[in-house]
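Researcher: Excuse me, tokens okay?
***
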Amino acid sequence: MIYFQILGWFHIAMEFREIEESMQEIPDFWRQMRTQYKTKLRRRID
């Protein structure tokens, strides 16, 4: 179940990356999402 959650997050991240590239400037919303994702990954590793 957690595996599918990670896949879902990764898919969302890839979609946002495409939006980010098309906008050429990183929105604060995208930056927040990315930092949340990184902290989630860190918690899983720890």
Notes: The chain has a mean pLDDT of 76. The CA atoms of residues 18 and 24 lie 10 Å apart.
